[in-house]
Design goal:
By secondary structure, the protein is an alpha+beta fold. The protein starts with 19 loop residues before the first strand and ends with a strand. α1 crosses α2. It is globular and about 40 Å long. It is built from four helices and seven strands, in the order βααβββαβαββ. A seven-stranded mixed β-sheet has the order 1-2-3-4-5-7-6, sandwiched between helices. β2 and β3 form a beta hairpin. The chain has a single domain, classed as Gcn5-related N-acetyltransferase (GNAT) (Aminopeptidase, 3-Layer(aba) Sandwich), CATH 3.40.630. The longest helix has 14 residues.
């Protein structure tokens, strides 16, 4: 099951009141997998180079759900247009109160104001889950994501230079952080 045909993309013409942000449901896996596959195969937003299967995505999300970490889905008119999650920044126990966030929107939903509400809800849910700090690792050339995080209380804390190599070029990672 892939993305819906282009017959209608309700997120292109909706008002922000049409956006529903809810807890992840297992039925979201096909849409989430399709959204993420675009970022893996066509962008440098993720450094993953092979698009994961629905089974692999279900396994990833299942681990976060089992940990009671925030996993959210954004939809308009019943169509999944994005998702976000926050989970451990690093696996060692001393990091257990720090999380790293990820937000992915359907490629046609980018730039329509949906990322902000999703990030706001994610930070609230992460705080409720017991996290104290949220960290964002953003590909250095992704100014829109850096600006989004800045508008939502994140501050620049560092830059890793030339740490990723994708599409025959070296990529930096900007690290941003905010207290919850």
């Amino acid at each position: 099951m892939g993305p819906r045909p282009a017959r209608s993309r309700p997120f292109l013409l909706c008002s922000m009141t049409d956006l529903v942000i809810r807890k992840f449901a297992w039925a979201d896996v096909p849409a989430i997998t399709a959204i993420y596959a675009h970022y893996v195969t066509d962008t440098v937003i993720t450094f993953e180079t092979d698009a994961p299967t629905e089974g692999a995505m279900a396994d990833r999300f299942g681990k976060m759900v089992d940990l009671n970490h925030p996993v959210l889905t954004a939809e308009i008119d019943g169509e999944v247009i994005g998702y976000a999650y926050a989970s451990f920044f690093r696996p060692r126990a001393a990091y257990r109160y720090s999380c790293e966030n990820s937000i992915y929107l359907h490629r046609e939903a980018v730039g329509h104001g949906h990322g902000g509400p999703l990030l706001d809800r994610l930070t609230a849910e992460a705080k409720s889950a017991g996290f104290n700090q949220m960290i964002a690792g953003i590909t250095g050339e992704r100014e829109n994501s850096i600006k989004l995080h800045s508008r939502h209380g994140f501050r620049l804390v560092g830059r890793y230079e030339r740490v990723g190599f994708k599409f025959d070029r070296w990529l930096d990672v900007v690290m941003m952080q905010r207290a919850l």
